[in-house]
Amino acid sequence: MALAPGTHTLGPDSGRLEVRTYREGLAQKVGHDLVLECTRWRATLEVSPDGQPSSVSFEADPRSLEVREGLHGLKPLSDSDRRDIKDNIERKVLGTKAISFQSNAIDSVGGMTVRGELEIAGARRPASFELVLGEDGRLSGTCPVVQSEFGIKPYRGFMGALKVRDEVEVVLDVQLPTDAGA
Asked: pLDDT tens-digit profile of 12-56?
């Protein structure tokens, strides 16, 4: 599928950017696997004249993460639980610095592999992930992020018996502009 050449700006109106966390530890039954949606983010996609992505960058506000689902817990998440999770993300996990990514290579052979630099909580590390471009112009993919590689200590509760797994997933699902004339 050919994309419309040029610079395209994407954000929450284009689709969803989620963070999915998973629990572990002796008390994992009392916790929840979480689906967090980032509600303030902006991405720029550069598409070359031949309709192929050539550059991707994004910036996300970690304070905009909203708890959308709490899965597999003993009881549903309350409004108070959701507020506590949001507060802990800001105070104990991510802080307030923007999360950003800048690609330095996109390989479109047999799929789409994006490589670049990801910055979280002030630490910058190489990152790569696979994206799938559907015939309908939907772009989706999952980027695994190991929190400790960015100096983040995964959240722990119940005196360490409940832990968030070190690897979380950043999931993107957006509708891209297509080149109707291609």
From this structure: 999 999 999 998 876 667 788 899 999 999 999 998 998 888 999
The answer to whether residue 68 scores a pLDDT higher than 90 is yes
Homologous superfamily of 6-175: Lipid/polyisoprenoid-binding, YceI-like (2.40.128.110)
Q: Where are the domains of the chain?
A: 6-175
Nearest to 20 by CA among 38, 35, 2, 4: 35
* pLDDT for 154: 84
Residues with Cβ < 8 Å from 157, sequence gap 6 or more?
Answer: 27, 31, 163
Residue among 116, 111, 136 at smallest CA distance from 126: 116
Residue 117 burial (CB < 10 Å; 0-12/13-18/19+)?
Answer: middle
